[in-house]
């Protein structure tokens, strides 16, 4: 085949990698990557259904182009062309790192988004498998994703060596000597391990009653208020702890928030 014959070839030629098989491979990549993206979307992660679907289909399309897109060029008379489909695959893996890196956040020595970044990487791999004519491997990778992301946390929570549930206890209190220490002691007595303490350094001052005054029988002074966030780990319910702290003198407000795995 010469260049003139190549130019005259039909645009929609099913024999040049545009047949039913190739469209089916793209469809399978879309389906599998969408399943993974839907799971991430329901978990309210930064990369959801649309991101994973586009990564899966895009990776599959790159593989299709790598395998079928340059076949006609290799048949040109007088042109020595050596095809290496693995080059495009290697560039896909390198390029997906930019998306994965943008999903990882570091805040106060806590890393978040590692699991979602790894999921993007896996979605790219299953898209490449579908585009490379290996849809069963792509299906197997999808099943492995759900096994690891949904099944492994259940197993680890049942293991005795792994800490139980994680909570963040948000407190606002009047600063007085020994109150924070008593709060930490109570958390320990309730069976929780304090893994992190973050005290709001900008304590506010509010006017409070302190005693008799010449004008209206009351003396008004300044009382400082502070906020603290305690990261707790334990296997029991934290609600009794909240109820007891609410009744303490000097404690102005108590909030509780469940914390999931920070690497997801």
TrEMBL record:
The keyword Electron transport does not apply. Residues 203-222 are annotated as: Disordered. The chain crosses the membrane at residues 20-39, 51-76, 88-106, 118-148. This is Magnesium transporter MgtC. PANTHER family: MAGNESIUM TRANSPORTER YHID-RELATED, PROTEIN MGTC. Residues 26-156 form the MgtC/SapB/SrpB/YhiD N-terminal domain. Pfam families: MgtC. It comes from Streptomyces eurocidicus (Streptoverticillium eurocidicus). Belongs to the MgtC/SapB family. It is found in: Cell membrane. It comes from the Bacteria. It is a multi-pass membrane protein. Keywords: Cell membrane, Membrane, Transmembrane, Transmembrane helix. Signal peptide: none annotated. GO terms for cellular component: plasma membrane.
């Amino acid at each position: 085949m010469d260049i003139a014959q190549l130019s005259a070839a039909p645009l929609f030629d099913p024999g040049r990698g545009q047949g039913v098989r190739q469209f089916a491979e793209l469809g399978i990549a879309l389906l599998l990557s969408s399943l993974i993206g839907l799971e991430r979307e329901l978990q309210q992660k930064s990369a959801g259904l649309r991101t994973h679907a586009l990564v899966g289909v895009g990776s599959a399309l790159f593989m299709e182009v790598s395998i079928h897109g340059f076949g006609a060029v290799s048949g040109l008379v007088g042109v020595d062309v050596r095809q290496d489909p693995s080059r495009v695959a290697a560039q896909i893996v390198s390029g997906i790192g930019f998306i994965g890196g943008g999903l990882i956040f570091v805040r106060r020595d806590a890393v978040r988004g590692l699991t979602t970044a790894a999921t993007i990487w896996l979605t790219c791999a299953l898209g490449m498998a579908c585009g490379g004519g290996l849809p069963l491997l792509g299906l197997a990778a999808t099943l492995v994703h759900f096994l690891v992301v949904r099944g492994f946390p259940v197993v680890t929570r049942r293991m005795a060596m792994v800490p139980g549930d994680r909570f963040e206890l948000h407190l606002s209190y009047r600063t007085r000597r020994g109150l924070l220490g008593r709060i930490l002691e109570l958390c320990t007595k309730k069976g929780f391990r304090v893994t992190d303490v973050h005290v709001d350094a900008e304590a506010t001052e509010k006017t409070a009653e302190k005693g008799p005054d010449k004008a209206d029988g009351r003396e008004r002074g300044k009382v400082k208020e502070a906020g603290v966030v305690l990261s707790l780990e334990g296997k029991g319910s934290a609600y009794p702890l909240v109820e007891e702290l609410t009744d303490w003198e000097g404690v102005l407000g108590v909030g509780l928030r469940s914390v999931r795995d920070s690497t997801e």
